[in-house]
Amino acid sequence: MLLAGVNDDLETMKTLVHKLLMCRVRPYYIYQCDLINGSSHLRTSVAKGIEIIEGLRGHTTGYAVPQFVIDAPVAAARSQLTQATFYIMTRKKS
Question: Of 19, 34, 38, 52, which residue is least crowded by CB atoms under 10 Å?
Fold first, then answer.
């Protein structure tokens, strides 16, 4: 779970995923906080989650890079953001 002020920066997440691997635990997913009453102070932006995942890629082993999962308001289930989705969402319009 990605939480504002807790683990929403790259260095904290790098440390966390590396320590998980040292304990032989693979970090499969990072979940975006759900849109529920009373959780707005813990929510981070989707852009912040993408920034963290992109920061982990290329700077740590592939096993230590979790998938970023969000609850899309229009979807019935959680959705994984893939590399292609990251590219589409973050590319700059020229």
Answer: 38
